[in-house]
Write a structure and sequence with these properties.
The protein has 250 residues and is of the alpha/beta class. The protein has one domain: Spore Coat Polysaccharide Biosynthesis Protein SpsA, Chain A (Alpha-Beta Complex). Helices cover 28% and strands 28% of the residues. It is built from eight helices and 14 strands. α1 runs parallel beside α2. The longest helix is centred in the first third of the chain and has 13 residues.
């Protein structure tokens, strides 16, 4: 019923820790699809790591051209997924046995929602910034200005702290068919986050976030020094000029 999709790029140490935690702290293993657009030397290291775990579950590796980007990688994963649900992770994130995946799926099965976000408590305030409802939207000169309002708490027998939201952190379980309809923009190699959730909202899909569902941030998440520039694009407001930019306002 569930596939785990992992996008990795040039940091085998992070992928190793991600998979190590996943397999050492869980008894139930789900099929995994990994999209890899690393340099060849890192792809070889990644394959050595992945081969250690192939005896425990099915792992498919999608070999992408160098620096295809997060969006292309995730879309490739979704295109290969044949289960009803998919969990989206980056190589710097993982989960433990404390994450109640069955209840996350059960909630989506029983309610009119399409995507279930978790949180990463080790990242502190970052979770709160990506938890809000869209109130009004104006588009001026290709800039999407979104006024927000507080999230709405939902009553649930499965979770104590669950809220309706229009955006969340990039750790979630979604209905696979929804991600086949709403894709990440392949032109965005990084900085794809806000546009994806905005498009998801425009399509009419609904999201929830629960602070009871804590994912883990792996310790070794930094890029090698010669590749740090690729990650830094996110902090330099990287975005192709012809693509829209989103501003959030309270």
């Amino acid at each position: 019923m569930l596939t785990i999709g992992i996008k990795t790029f040039c940091r085998p140490h992070a992928l190793n820790e991600c998979l190590d935690i996943l397999f050492s702290k869980n008894n139930k293993y789900y099929p995994i699809i990994i999209a890899d657009d690393s340099l060849p030397k890192y792809k070889l290291q990644n394959l050595e790591i992945i081969n250690k775990y192939k005896t425990k579950t099915s792992i498919e590796v999608i070999d992408l051209p160098f620096d295809s980007g997060l969006s292309k990688g995730r879309n490739s994963i979704v295109s290969k997924c044949d289960t009803k649900y998919i969990m989206i992770l980056d190589d710097s994130r993982t989960f433990t046995s404390e994450l109640n995946i069955c209840n996350m799926i059960k909630f989506l099965e029983e309610n009119n929602y399409h995507l279930f976000c978790g949180v990463i408590n080790s990242r502190c305030g970052n979770n709160r910034g990506y938890c809000t409802l869209f109130n009004s939207i104006k588009i001026i000169n290709n800039i999407i200005n979104i006024k927000t309002k507080p999230v709405r708490k939902i009553k649930s027998a499965l979770f104590n702290n669950i809220y309706e939201t229009n955006i969340g952190v990039n750790v979630f379980i979604a209905k696979t068919e929804c991600l086949k309809n709403v894709k990440w923009n392949d032109e965005l190699k990084i900085g794809e986050h806000e546009l994806f959730f905005y498009d998801f909202y425009k399509f009419g899909y609904k999201c929830v976030i629960s602070y009871d569902c804590n994912f883990e941030q792996v310790n070794n998440r930094n890029y090698p020094k010669d590749l740090k520039k690729y990650r830094d694009r996110a902090y330099n407001m990287y975005s192709p000029s012809k693509l829209i930019i989103i501003h959030f306002k309270n």
